[in-house]
Amino acid sequence: MPDGQVLEFSGVSKRFGAVAAVSDFSARVEPGVVTGFLGPNGAGKTTSLRILLGLVRATEGTATIGGVPYGRLRHPLQTVGAVLEASSFHPGRSAAGHLKVYAQAAGLPTHRVDEVLATVGLAEVAGRKVGGFSLGMRQRLGLAYALLGDPGVLVLDEPSNGLDPEGIKWMRSLLRQFAAQGRTVLVSSHLLAEVQQTVDALLIISRGQLVFQGGIEDLSDPSEQATVVDAPDRAALTKALQSAGVEFELLRSGLAVRGVDTSQVGRIAADAGVALSTLQRRGPGLEEVFFELVNGVRVHASTATAERVDATGTGYAQGPDEPEPDEVAEPGAAPETEAASEPEPEPADTREAEPESEAAPEPEPEVQIEVESAGFAVASTGIIEVVRVAAAADAHPDPDRTEADIEADRFFSSFDGEPEHPDPEPTESEEGEQR
Q: Do residues 167 and 51 share a domain?
């Protein structure tokens, strides 16, 4: 059985031009637990996962798997199983044929194809074309790809999306089973109620910054928790608590006791011979705490570095190479330049200061050049080939097809000469592809 690996983000920042998608993000994901990765849309979750999987290069910082960047793993598919989207399939391939491509590319035995299809419940539709699959079936096929190399690490983005209630329950059980085996499981999701039932630890990101890291039980402060207790004979319960010196607050649903756990309250009632009808622990729910964290209303102690606001007021934490706010604000520095030039009778000093303020946007062309110089053809989360964007555009001028589509078609077409499994007879569309 493969061992889980520690996933570690160290000072990761990613900027797309003037946009900071991720800013000084540091977190650690331990094996043996299911870790949820939460955040609103645009918070930087997908970008962070792509950096971890080597699909996006970080502007600053590192992301490693067992201390090694993804690009340097000797056996990536056997180390990390990852699914970031459930749409990266060639619609003309069968489920078994799709997995066979990756098995052959990774040097895995072909019997793994049948094993993982059976694991995810797609054994009966192994010969069907993926183009006819529902969203839930595509999610299962994506998970089958992630499990193909029997990896010690699973990285899944919205794995329950499109699944029916039975499928969601099955997914929850599978993730917990993998974590119980000592593997590392990192799951990104928007379904807070499902996350609360599935994960053991949480990473919460907002505006590219980490706002919480820890166990799900550590989300709220213990002082926010209260024991709610009630009894058919509320007067007797009240007298028992008063006799024990326990302070309480009267609610419509019972008595709220703070600073005393449920076992102590239950023991006090039992000693007084009071039968209880309610005894539970209450506090702010995951949804409430989540919104407070991402909106900046609540600051958790697990974020070691204090939040620093940049000069633009976006609230992103500054990177290690960024100056402090009083040094960044160029508008504040401009009066000093003008003041220095006032005693000078010649206006040359004032004109020389103007190009200095215009030199700030120089890094932007570098990002554009890097993006335009190369592209990636990606199927599921595996990089099939690195191609020059300009060359691909010249060879395929169709504006409706992306470079990823073109390279994926070329890659998958190399397998069209082999018979599909277990579909014995090719369809008319397959014969057309072979011709």
A: yes
